[in-house]
Amino acid sequence: MTRTLCLFLCLAATLAAAPGGAFETGETRAPTLPVERTPFHVPVFRNDAVAMLTVLLPPHRIAPYHEHSRDFAYVVVRESPTLVQNWGDAAPASIRWPRGAVGFGAFSKQSLTHKAENVGDSALAIVGFELLEPAPRGRAPSARPSRFEQIIDNERLRGWRLALKPGETVPAFTQTAPGVRIVVEGGELIETDATGAGQNMALQPGAFQWRDAGPARALRNAGDTTIEMVEFELK
User: How confident is the model at residue 19, as a pLDDT?
Assistant: First the structure.
């Protein structure tokens, strides 16, 4: 799997049933909605730094043109073949983002208006977040243990993928900047602090957490399935 996909996907605007091949050239541009106001593109969390969104684009549904104007990071939780067309392009591109794909769009520098259609037989599920701060704050993201695979690093954020098989552990590390965790494959995770106190978490695909910078924590997969998640820290 390609680990860092710097793409520009943020699907699901005003969804309505539409047949395949609904994209046409020469069409008149309709008014577009901001991302957070579009059906099936649901705001689920917001603070001063980020606005979290979950996208569930059902099979054979179309997302008409919508605009992205803030920097946006996302993780594909469930994949499905998709037609994506940017405004002004003559034809859509046929794309299938793999499960676990991570992307980032610097839309504060160049906004994007596009539409998409899920042409598969299963839902396309994406969890992402807009960066509400207009510029980096000068935070220094942490150095992670080797089990974390760094997959993205730019002027706005740094991100890692973590896959833990049953029984595997991550030694204690300290998160030095706030950020977001997004679960791709769930399971039972135990986080242990410096005092040895542990917290069991039953993680589900598509779940997310806002993570403040804080004290050291160690991780262990206490279940019987492989856990996969992506963690970001903001700069």
Answer: 28
Q: Are strands 102-105 and 112-118 parallel, antiparallel or unpaired?
A: unpaired
Nearest Cα neighbor of 72 from 15, 141, 126 is 126
In SS3 terms, 19-31 reads as CCCCCCCCCCCCC
- Nearest Cα neighbor of 164 from 144, 180, 185, 181 is 185
The pLDDT tens digits for 68-107 are 999 999 999 999 999 999 999 999 999 999 999 999 999 9
CA dist list (Å): 41 to 15, 53, 56, 64, 187: 9, 6, 7, 12, 25
The answer to whether 52 touches 131, Cβ cutoff 8 Å, is no
pLDDT bin (cut points 50, 70, 90) of residue 27 is low
